[in-house]
Amino acid sequence: MATLRKQYAVSRYVYSEDSFGEDYEKVYRVRKTTLDHVKEYLTCDSKRAKNAVLSLLPIIGWMRIYRVREWLLGDVVSGISTGLIAIMQGLAFSLLASLPPSYGLYTAFFPMLTYFFLGTSRHISVGSFPVLSLMVGAVVTRLVPDEGPPANITGFEGLTQDQQRVLVASSVTFLMGIFQLAMGVLQVGFIVVYLSDTLVSGFTTAAAVHILVSQLKFVLGLTVPGISGPLSIIYTLEKIFVQITSTNICDLVMSILIMAMVFIVKELNDIYKAKLPVPIPIEVIMTVIACGVSYGFNFEKRYDVEIVGKMVSGYEPPMAPNVEVFQESAVEAFPIAIVGFAVAFSVAKVYSIKHDYTIDGNQELIAFGISNIFGASFRSFAASTALSRTAVQESSGGKTQIAGLISAMMAMIVTVALGFLLEPLPRSVLGALVIVNLKGMLMQFREIPYLWRRDKTECLVWLGTCLGAILLGLDLGLVVGLGVELLTVIFEPKGVKIFRIPSPIFFANIEFFRDKLVEAVCTTCLPIFCRRMMTLQRGSRDLVCQTTEESYMNMEELDQPTDLKGFPFQMDWNAELPSNVDVPRVDLHSLILDFSAVSFLDISAMKGLKMALKEFIRIDVDVYIVACDVYIVEKLHMCMFFDDEILTSMFFPTLHDAMLHVLEKHKDDTKNGWVVRKNCSWTYYTILPELAWLLLPSGFKITRQKI
To answer: What is the pTM of this model?
Structure first.
């Protein structure tokens, strides 16, 4: 049976500001005065106070609608199931942070206490995340290496190596929390949109490779010092293979058996998840068995197996972070804060859509910022969420963060009363549990052929991010990924350039604006014009150079100052030059200025803008201004901005209208080597995430320069 298909088409005229004004009557809005805004800001009534409290404490919102009879049992079951996994993952992920395992239980407890009150997601499980743990571990091993003296930090005096590492990890986490809290207070939760799904996928896959390599020393029972920095993964593998003949067979066999059992049971959990009330906690089962076998057969002494050892019983008093560590780790702490929030927000968004409630990105930043600051004060390390743990919390019946609170209480019970039972646990078991839980992230390698078939640009972003993070480290790799992603959205059409101004233009930045405009669009346009006109007027052979295969123009000559006085306003590119002289044409026929973010324009800026526009019009470049605020247009009229050359017809209401106008005007224009595709299909492109979707012709590319 054929699928029913319906077609629709949106058709309207291409509008300039002039033609739009002819067809539609302008509606004037009542603008508030500065005094009105001040009064509104300072006014506090019961409704506004209520909204402020509900925004800051989202727990009040969902507690008021909590259905005890329907939700409580599910939350309790979910909390117990999630708590068991959180305990095991906390122990395992602490190895990634180069910390004693007991501090992983701190991360499973303290951050959740504050997120319970401040977080807007009802389903994510707050605690350790392997990627963040590894990024924190890189800072820890850099400042407190396994071999050699630690960094010259005053606070390290009188501390053991483990205590120094705990101080570094908690200080980095504290600074991470400060960054997140500051971004939340400043309402910059939108920053997460700069991390596309493709970039995050490539980044987490690279992190999974780093995690896998970092855990090999535990699985093989080798002594390999922690290495950080560019190419650290290569140096780590080199040290592992040099010692491969010293592998501890007991560790290796035990790790393989545990990984095989956990993998099989997890697959069965996925297959029969509809029939199982809760997933089988295979990690907990295997940990209990490994603890019993290790204790009964005395693996530590008989087979030289490294075990967890002494567990910290109870909680230590809070401590202040170290300012010197702040100075040493600020560069790493910021990307840790961004990655932690991006992962948590992405996971939270999935479940908020599924269960039909809203989450607030800025409030999530505040919640995680305070949670990490609070947790770091009690020696926990970076907290976010883990998809596997969150999936268990949601699938086992969790409806609210009461499940998260119960899971935190379970971590507290183990820390206070049952920690000694985990002391005989081999570290190779924790390493095996970490590796087997990397399956989801490592399977993202399957996205490469899919992206290559569907979108080669996205594939380039994925590969660039992944390879950069693998070879250069996660912090630099994230920067590389962002750079590759931005480069892939910088496009350039033949003969058309779009320049977006992201701020008001006024007397202090108008010259900077003009310089950046020329730099981004055409650095040689004006010099080319000057030399061509001087050649036409004087017939001089000395002012230009012959065109050869090796040298198109003498750029030094073009940089020399010229006097425009006496030149005609409009360039005539068809005027005949001397037979032995060649001056190139300007390979640009249309310049579009995106004024969507320009909220203010003063008199000085108008003069500078007018001069800049005439410079381009002078060399036969059509200039268009799009999405200009109606009040700025009115101000331009009042200030006599328009004349015989700068017309109101240059203004268009949208970028799409301007592009359609350019397409129509130049569809048959090939005399200057400009090519515009005909009969092109229409596709949506985004230039940068902060822009709305723009309807542009397929195959068109756009250059955007921020100032």
So the answer is: 0.65
- How many domains does the chain fold into? 2
H/E segment holding residue 56: helix 46-56
The token pair that represents 694 in the structure block: 């723009």
Tokens of 237: 């593998």
Which residue from 555, 534, 548 is spatially nearest to 580, judged by alpha carbons?
Answer: 548
Residue 54 placed within a domain: no
- Sign of the dihedral defined by the CA atoms of residues 484, 485, 487, 488, in that order: positive
- Burial (CB < 10 A; 0-12, 13-18, 19+), residue 657, is buried
- Whether residue 424 is found in the same domain as residue 506: no
Confirm if 101 and 430 have CB atoms less than 8 A apart: yes
Give the pLDDT mean for 520-526: 64
- Kindly state whether residues 384 and 518 are assigned to the same domain: no
Give the pLDDT of residue 563.
46
261 and 336: one domain? yes
Answer yes or no: are the C-beta atoms of 181 and 327 closer than 8 Å.
Answer: no
Q: From edge to edge, which strands make up the β-sheet containing 622-626? A: 495-500, 588-594, 622-626, 651-652
Among residues 441, 462, 484, the one where a domain terminates is: 441
By the 8 A CB rule, do 202 and 471 touch? no
Contacts of 578 (CB under 8 A, 6+ apart): 535, 539, 541
Among candidate residues 190, 136, 98, the one with its CA nearest the CA of residue 474: 136
CB environment 608-645: b (16+ within 10 A), e (fewer): bbbebbebbbbbbbbbbbbbbeeebbebbeeeebbeee
The answer to whether 465 and 203 have CB atoms below 8 angstroms apart is: yes
Which pLDDT tens digit goes with each residue over 439-456? 888 888 998 998 898 778
Tokens of 653: 């209401």
Q: Residue 631: which domain range?
A: 495-535+584-666
Nearest alpha-carbon partner for 474 in 336, 347, 328 = 336
Per-residue pLDDT at 347 exceeds 90: no
Q: Residue 228 in contact with residue 142, Cβ under 8 Å?
A: yes
Residue 516 φ then ψ, to 5°:
-65, -35
Residues 247-264 have pLDDT tens digits of 999 999 999 999 999 999
Contact between 461 and 488 (Cβ < 8 Å) = yes
CATH code of residue 625: 3.30.750.24
Alpha-carbon torsion, ordered 192, 198, 200, 204, to 10 deg = 180
Question: Pairing between strand 495-500 and 588-594?
Answer: parallel
- Domain boundary residue among 409, 441, 473? 441
| 197 part of a folded domain | yes
- The mean pLDDT of the chain is 80
